[in-house]
Amino acid sequence: MASVPKVNRGFSLVDLLVATTISLMVLAAVTSVIISGFSSSSQRSLQLMLAQDTNDALRMIKDDILRAGFASGASSTFVLSGATKTVYLDAPTSGTSTCIAYGYNDGSNEHYRSYYLKDNKLNVFMTKSSVISASEACNNGHSVLDYNQMKVTKFEVSERLLNAGTASSQFLTIQLDVSTHGDEYSVSKNIKVKTRNWY
């Protein structure tokens, strides 16, 4: 008796639909995991950028303030025109200020700096090509931080005077609060710095 050959008929429509449905569910699960991981990574990157940029801004201000009042070869400290102290604060009577300004002379050039809060931005103005006075110090700057990504909610400087006989110095506390535009994340940092050059 001759054997009947088996006929390979392939997959049925039901088999194909079941396999396609299972494949789509696996693909949806994998896509969901990838999107969730990407979103989490993006949020973490934003948090890190906020913290890093805030630290960098404060470090730049601190390093810069340490030069305030330096006058190469002079017998007295370099003070802005109209200011009475090494570091000028725009509102010293209220206890806190939203603008600080100072200058120094490196022997070749006079350098002027100011940091101030305006329109939710921490602005900096740096020049050695023109002279600035205390009354015009808190203008003409540009943002220190990426204002498309973040806003400054607080920039305050408070001072404590240090006296030693006929000379005085300033001990400054600088508070910087930064957040994203939607307030999802925020960072609050402060630094303390003593001016090196007595007035």
Blueprint of the fold:
Blueprint: H1 13-65, E1 88-89, E2 96-97, E3 99-105, E4 110-118, E5 121-127, E6 142-143, E7 150-164, E8 167-180, E9 186-194
Antiparallel strand pairs: 1-3, 2-7, 3-4, 4-5, 5-6, 7-8, 8-9
What does it look like?
With 199 residues, this protein is of the alpha+beta class. It has one domain (43-194). Helices cover 27% and strands 34% of the residues. The protein contains one helix and nine strands; from the N terminus they run H-E-E-E-E-E-E-E-E-E. It has one helix at 13-65; strands spanning 88-89, 96-97, 99-105, 110-118, 121-127, 142-143, 150-164, 167-180, 186-194. The strands form two sheets. A five-stranded antiparallel β-sheet has the order 1-3-4-5-6, covered by helices on one side. Strand 3 (99-105) and strand 4 form a beta hairpin. The chain is rod-shaped, with a radius of gyration of 31 Å.
Keywords:
single chain; 199 residues; alpha+beta; five-stranded antiparallel β-sheet; four-stranded antiparallel β-sheet; 1 helix; 9 strands; 34% strand; rod-shaped
Structure at a glance:
The protein has 199 residues and is of the alpha+beta class.
> How many helix segments?
1
Adjacency order of strands in the biggest sheet = 1-3-4-5-6
Roughly what percent helix?
25-40%
Number of strands: 9
How confident is the prediction overall: mean pLDDT?
87
Structural class: alpha+beta
User: Which blocks of ≥5 consecutive residues have pLDDT under 50?
Assistant: none
Write down the domain tally.
Answer: 1
Which range does the strand content fall in? 25-35%
User: What order do the helices and strands follow?
Assistant: HEEEEEEEEE
Radius of gyration: 31 Å
The span between the termini is: 119 Å
Gross morphology is rod-shaped
> Quick one: biggest sheet?
5 strands, antiparallel
